Each structure stands twice: as C-alpha cells, then as structure tokens.
Amino acid sequence: MEGLPILSIMMLVPLTSALACLFSGANAARWIALGATLVTFVFGIVLWANYDIGGAQWQFTEEANLFAGFSYKLGIDGIALMLIMLSVFLMPICILASWDSVTKRVGEYMAAFLFMEVLMIGTFAAQDLFLFYVFFEAGLIPMYLIIGVWGGDNRIYASYKFFLYTLLGSVLMLIAMFWMVAEAGTSDIPTLMEYGFPAGAQTWLWLAFFASFAVKVPMWPLHTWLPDAHVQAPTAGSVILAGVLLKLGGYGFIRFSLPMFPEASAQFAWLVFVLSMVAVVYTSLVALVQADMKKLIAYSSVAHMAIVTVGLFAFNVQGLEGAMIVMLSHGLVSGALFLCVGVIYDRLHTREIARYGGLAINMPYYALFFLLFTMASIGLPGTSGFVGEFLSLAGIYQTSSLVALICTTGIILGAAYMLYLYRRVAFGGQTNADAAAMPDISAREWIMMAPIAAAVLWMGVYPESFLAPMRKDIATLDARLAAAAPASDARLAPGTPRAEAANALGHHGEGNKGTGHEGMEHEGGSTDSAKEGAH
Amino acid sequence: MDFAASFALVLPELVLTGTGLALLLVAAWGGDKAARQIAIAAAAALFVAGILIVPGLHFGTDGPATLAFGGLLKVDSYALFAKALIYLSAIAALMIAPPFFASPSAGTERGMRAEYPVLVLFAAVGMSLMVSANDFMSLYLGLELNSLSAYVLAAILRRDTRSGEAGLKYFVLGALASGILLYGMSLLYGFTGGTAFAAVRAGLTGEMGTGALFGVIFVLSGLAFKISAVPFHMWTPDVYEGAPTPVTAFFATAPKVAAVALTARVVFEVFGGQVTAWQQIVMFMALASIIFGALGAIGQENLKRLLAYSSINNIGFILLGLAVANADGASAMLVYLFIYVAMSIGCFVALLMLRDEEGNLYETFTDIRGLSVTQPAIAWALLIFMFSLAGIPPLLGFYAKFVVFQATIEAGLVAFGAIAIAASVIGAFYYIKFVKVMFFDEPVGVVTGKSEASHWTLLGLTALIISPLGYLLTPSLADLADKAAASLFLAV
After folding, report:
1. Nearest in space to A321 (alpha carbons), one of A477, A467, A535, A531
2. Helix/strand/coil for A20
3. pLDDT tens across A54-99, in order?
4. Which of the listed residues A134, A207, A388, A407 has the most CB atoms within 10 Å of its CB?
C-alpha cells in the first residue's frame, strides 16, 4: 500500500466516471455510476483494512504543490476514515435507489451524484484548510442541481433556500480561515489543530465557524432549509443529504471548532446546549404532527443531530465517541428511512402518510425493514442508534445533568413520532385500495436495504469495530480539550478508601453507619473509573 | 534619453498603430467587403504585439530602464501584464464580431463594417498608453484615444436606435467624466507644479491642502467613471444593453482592465504617500459597487443588462484589492482581473451563441428557459461561468475572490472584508437564477441555431480556464501578478 495515492484514486474514479456519464445514454450512465461507486467502495474497504489502528495519527497522506495559495494535501485519521466509509457505503445504494425512479436526464443525474461523492471524500480527507473549504463549498453545486432539476413540485424554492442559506454560513468561515492562516502562518490542518490561538480571537473565529457548521448540521433555529430541501429532493438526494452532508457540520465541529478553539468552545458550550435542547424538544414535537413522511424524518434528523452537538460539546470521551457513533448511525438509519419512503413513493407517488396504511399485510418484507430502521431511529438496544445515543447522553450527563435530562426526552418523543408513523403506515386496516395493491419490495430494493440493515445491527451489537479506529484520535482530542473543559455540575468527589472491605465482618453498629456514606462516594469514584475504562 | 531605446519599449504600440493606419486605408478603398480580412489582419497585429511583450512579462522588468520618452511612459511588468490582458480581450472582440454583424438582428445588410477592427485597434493603442502612462499628459492622451474609439464602437449600428442611444449616452457621460478628471489633474498641477507622476507625488508629501485633496478626489471620481464603480456607474447598464453584443463584450473586458490598471497606478504611484486620503474613498466605492451591483441585477430580465450589473459587482471586488493598499492587494487585483476577463468573454460569447436558425439573437431570461435540454453545451458552459462569477469553488472565480479576500484580511481589514463577503451572497442570488432558468424551467426552444467555430473555440477555451483545471494555472498566474505588483510598488 505504501506510496499508492489511494485517496486520490478514490476521488479520481468517480470523477472520471462522472464525466463519462455526462456523455452517455441513460442505461449506460446507470451502469457506469453503479460500477464506479462500487469500485470506490472496494477502495474504501481496502482503506479501512490497511488503516493502522493505533498507528500514526494521519495516514495515507499525500501532498502536491499544484496550486498557488494552498496545497493539495490529503490524509485521514480514524474519524475521517469512518465518515469516508459512510459516504462510499451509501453511494452505490443511492444509485440503486434512483435506478427506475429517475427517468429524465439520467446521465446528468448520475454525474451530479458522482461529483458529490468526489467532494465528500475530498472534504473528509483534506488536510489543507482551503482545500477543505473548496470541497466543502463545492458540494453546493451538484446538490443545487439535484434538488432543482429532479426534485418535487416546490423544488425551486427549496433549491434557492438550500443554496443561499449554506453559502451565507460558509463565507464568514472563509474570512475566519484567512485570519487564522495569517496568524498561524500555515494552512495545514494538523498544525492548526495544535496551534494556540489567542483566547480573545478564538471567540470570533469560533462564531464564524459556527455560522457555517450550525447551518450544515443544522441546529435550531437555522434548520429551516432542511425540511424544504429534504422534501423536495429526489429519494437518493435525501439519502445523501441526511446521510453525509449533515455530517459535514458535525465533522466541522470535531475537526475545527473543538481542537482549534478549545477555550471558545468551552465558552460557548452553553449556546450549543441551549440550541440543542430546544431542537430536541421542539423539532420532535413538530415531527409528531407532520402529515408528510419525508418532512417527519427531516425533522427527526434535526433532533438527532442535536444529540450529536451536545455529545460533542460534553468535553469528554463518551460524549465525543457517542457523537461520532450517532453521526454514523444517523447516516445509515435516516438514509434507510428515506429509502423506505422512496420505495412506497415510487409505487404510489405520494408522501402523505394518510394515503397508506396496513402495508404490513401486502408488503411484509418491506414492513420488516421499515420496522428495523424505525427501531434503530428510536434507539432500541441492539441497533446502532442505542449505542450512539447512550454514549452521547452519558457524556453530557457528566457535564450537565439538566441538559442530559432534557435531551433524553428526545428519545421518548422520538419513540412517539416514529412509532406513530409506523403504525399509520404499516399497521391498521388497508384503508386505501391502491396502497393495498402495492407489491412487496423487489430484488433491487432488497439489495439496497439489506446491507444497511446489516450495518445497523453490526454497529448496534459490536460497536467496537467502529470505535477502535477513532479511539486514539478522540483521546487526543479529549486531551487537548481537557484544559478548557467547562466545570461539570456533577461535582464528582473522590471517595476515601476504606480501611476494610465492604463485606468484611466488623464490630456491630460502627461499620453499618459508615457504609451508606461511603457507598455514595464510591458512586462518584466509579463514574471516574468508567471514564478511564472508556479510554 | 535615447530615442531608439524608447521606440524599442513602445514597439507593440508602434506595431498596432502602423497596422491600424494601414488597415484604415485598406478599409477606405476595400470597403465593407474586406471587413473580414481586415479583422484577421488586426487580430494578427494584436497577436504580434502580444508576442512582443512576452519576454518582458516572463522575466519581469522594472526600474529606470522601463522609462520611455523622458519619463512620459513606463513600460514595466505591471504595464505588460495589463497589456497582455488588453490584447487578448481585443482579439476575442474581433473573433466574435463577424457572425454577430452578419446576423439579421444586427440589421446591417453588408455584415461587419470595415471600421470595426480598425477602431478596436486604435482603442487597444489608447489602452496600452493608459496602462503605461507615467505622466498625467500621456494618461489623458491614452484615455481619450480609447474613449473616442469606444464611443464610435458603441454606436456602430447606425440604424439601430438602441445602439445610437448607447453611443450618445456613453459619449455625453464619458465626456463629463473626462472633464472631471481633467479638472482634478489641473488642480493637482496647480498645487504641486508638475504633471509627471513623480513630480506630483513629490508635491503631495506632508499635510495635504484642501485644494490638492480636491484634486485627488476629482481624479478618482473621473477614473471611477471609467471603471463604472458606484456611485459613477449609472451609464453602464444602458450602454451595455444598447451597444452591439461584441462591443459590449469588448467594453466589459479591455477598457475595464486598462482603467483599473490606470487607477491602481495613479493611487499607488501618485497618491502613494497619502494613503489615508484615498483609501476610504476606494473602500466606499468597493463596498457600494458590490452591494449595488448585486441589488441592481436582481430585477433584470435582459441578460446583457444583468451582466452590466455583474461587472459593477466585480469591479467592487477588484477595488477591494486596491483598497488594501499594498503589493499583495495589487497582485490579488491583477489575478482577479485576469479571471474576470476570462469569465466575461465566456459569458458574452455564450450570449452571442443564443440564436435561432435564421441567426436572430436572443438576450432575455425568457429565451433561455430550459436551455440545458436544447443546447446542453452552451448551458453547461454558462453554468460554469455563473457559479464562477458567484465565487463558488472549485471554479476559478473562487480563486479570484480568494486572493482578494486573503489580501484584505492579511492587511487587517477584517470587518471590511466580512461585510464585503456577506454582500457577495446577494450576488449569488441572481447568478443561480441564471442556472435555475436554464436547468430547472421547461424548455421554450427558441435557441436552436448553430454557432460558428470561432465562438465554440472561445467558449471552450474560457470554460476550460474557468473550470477546476484552471487552478493548475494559478502558480504561474500568481507569479506573474506578483512580479507586476512588485514593479508597481518599486516607486513607493
């Protein structure tokens, strides 16, 4: 593997195929796109297999001085590896999801998706601040076209809103980047991650980056572009949007805001907490009353991403790990839920929940998959959702029990709106004759759903596979953040060691008195040791 | 001063002048039938002139050896960089003209008039003088030679009332601007006792009197007129809309380059010791141009008018580099100019390709609905130009904004840069409207005609430069711009 520029190859394959798609007919374009995304996925597996867990922080590095002003420098750590894997895993599924449903301008459609893949890999692998920005921002072009050309009825409004919202957020970040590079004298991301910016400047820099990432995540009240974009985008567009593009915001926080501006992050943690708490409760309640399936899932995305942001700003290992797992899990689960919506939308051409009902009778396999993903979205133990949300909330509990309390209501509300959705779509009587006549999922749809289902269960049962590559990077980040971590409200007090074992037979009276006291202190100590254990 | 050395320095201008005069005679006897051959000869002359400046541009040239005719002209790297852009734009303006004048929309029975290439040549000579001026006298000579040619070019479709109106408006307002400029120059002469840049600069040291300050302001206002910066921009949309499209393409590129380069030279070499006096004026013009250029474009239905506002908007970003008032800013400004020229040529060529089978031209939003279905190649090229103008990476327009904003922030003008970049989002609104109309709307199918090879060549070339591949040009572009900016700051 030495010397092979695998990251560049992973970007080159979809890029050349995208150009080929532009000039080929509908059917050829479909096969080219599928082939290219599968090849890229295979390269992704090679990447993961060759990733040296516990080795150097930055692996597969490449550098070339092609441009003036910034350099072409790639490299990944465990966090980037996982997000790249998520992207390349979802991509072939997106292509399959649009196999039959997209009939006009197929070549351009497939090209747009392949460009998207290039840009996503580039964003996660970029090691130069400006190169990151180029990839990060360039995603607007294909996404604008995907929503605008192949979207639903109100696609024009949604595409404008998506474009201008995210652009306004990003340009302020660019200004901050210029300032940082002028100050630190380098645009190299690993160097900047260890650079100590003056605390006063950090405040402004953090806010500028926040403007961009908060729109991408999206955080309440900047989330309003998301339901519009999701609802109007074609199925595969929604999958990519929910699966990967929202992760750019979370990735931004973990790669830039936290390590580069630790003091400012601590200073503004309350802001993130407040916005996330509002998001969890408010968007869950909004999701509860939606009549449109896609809109419901879009609002649930906002709620889930709020769990990510609280986890990130918990300033401890559990929170960070949890946030990463929620991101991966949400990428799979919400992507899968959009696919589930897409499957029945392709048959009945409506997203209105009331038009369906009793699908478990005529589409049993579909109902099974839909149930699995619904449960994963709720966070049922055994699915990926549980692992991430539990870690995230455990992390935030150490920092603020109030935030943990309010965010945990999101799980309950999540169960409410997801189960309510499932009941209305899959259970109950077959009230609509046309919905009752729909055939069960085809082989193509099986191929789309089954891998996601397997990944969701894998991540739920054995998250270690996904946590292991990231562990060292998260520990590094945690060490960097330790000095700036805000005071926790848990007030952990180290216990005094006992003179004798708890179950030792002592003299009457005295021993029993002390046990209650020391038992409580021991609780505090065990949280600490749990923290150590997670390292 | 050795005259032979001076003539050697202005050899490109001599070539252009000689060819221009000779072609004028050919035009007088050959008539409009020879127009095409004259255009080819003119383009060849521009190309030769361009080749002549390559060595100086490549190796960099500055210092006393670049002064010609006793310091009237200064042919340094900076002037050469601007000249290269001017010659390239002029060649493009000649290449795109014949098919336009042959189309029924132009309303000329005999096709292109023989004067057109000759006037472009004389304008190019004037612009060459402008960018290498080192004295207010040579500055004014160059400016007027260019302007007078431009007035005639704007009105060259004599039977078309819009063209006539454009020419008249351009002439009246341009003359007014020249008057303002001349008045400012006379004030400066009165208060400093010289017309040479170095003499005026020497006279402007220390505390500046009110009279001299007025001189500075009048000169800047006159120049702002020429680059159509807000608040002196109002002629631009009318002239751009009314003038024949190849002429508009020419106006949007070469004279802009010349006027911007001239403005930069004046503010750095003449007013360089009084940065505080002009910096806030330029900052105001930059911000106002960005904002008004963007807002004015929003309601436009005519594409040429929209591109006029877009050019005002772009001038704002170029002035941003000027407002920084250091070599980095000047270099960023030159890089921006290069990319702006490529984008503008591309846009106007694409507009000229919007024609039906009879060759009638179309220039409103209604006509390009669904263009991506009927003419995918033109639509994709326009998509590249529009996203590039909006400054979206990975297109080259982003690099232009990148260098300008980097220079701004590095000079410590953070708030200024932040406001300007936020205002650039307003501009994105109408650029993406372009894309929306071409890609999202149902096709109307009026644009069905075939275009000439010269158009395709230019469109392909500019699209290639603006595409992400253009980033491979950035190291050499940055190098050339740095050399040019360094020679500009040698005097400071």
Report:
1. A467
2. helix
3. 888 888 888 888 888 888 999 999 999 999 999 999 999 999 888 8
4. A388
Which residue of B334, B335, B414 to mutate against A (max A Cβ within 10 Å)? B414
Q: State how far the Cα of A507 lies from the Cα of B350, in Å rounded to an integer.
A: 97
Task: Among A72, A178, A186, A203, pick the best mutation site for testing chain B contact (most B Cβ within 10 A).
Answer: A178
Half-sphere exposure of A35 (CA within 13 A, CB side): 12
Work out how many CB contacts closer than 8 A connect A with B: 94
Q: Please enumerate residues of B whose Cβ is less than 8 A from a Cβ of A.
A: 372-373, 387, 392-394, 398-399, 402-403, 405-406, 408-410, 414, 417-418, 421-422, 424-425, 428-429, 432, 435-436, 439-440, 471-472, 474-475, 477-479
Smallest Cβ distance to A156: which of B428, B440, B477? B440
CB spacing of A178 vs B409 below 8 angstroms: yes
Mean per-residue pLDDT, A36-52: 92
The number of beta carbons lying within 10 Å of the beta carbon of residue B137 is 14
| Cβ pair A175:B472 closer than 8 A | no
pLDDT at B450: 82
Structure-block tokens of residue A472: 């060292």
Q: pLDDT tens-digit profile of A244-264?
A: 888 999 999 999 999 999 999
Give the predicted TM-score (pTM) of the model. 0.90
pLDDT tens digits, residue range A99-151? 888 888 888 889 999 999 999 999 999 999 999 999 999 988 998 998 888 88
Bridge pairing between strands A72-76 and A59-64: antiparallel
| pLDDT higher than threshold 60 for residue A526 | no
Cβ proximity of A318 and A399 under 8 Å: no
d(CA B40, CA A284): 69
Look at residue A514 in the predicted model and tell me its pLDDT: 45
Say whether pLDDT at B202 is over 70. yes
If one counts every other C-beta atom within 10 angstroms of the C-beta of residue A289, the result is 11
B139, B119 Cβ separation under 8 angstroms = no
Q: Does position A518 have pLDDT exceeding 60, yes or no?
A: no
Enter the tokens of residue A422.
Answer: 């499932």
Q: With an 8 Å Cβ cutoff, are A174 and B418 in contact?
A: no
Beta bridge partners of B133: B73
Looking at CA atoms only, how far is residue A155 from chain B in angstroms? 9
Instruction: State ipTM.
Output: 0.91
Determine contact, residues A73/A62, Cβ cutoff 8 Å.
Answer: yes
Say if CB A128 and CB A189 are below 8 A apart: yes
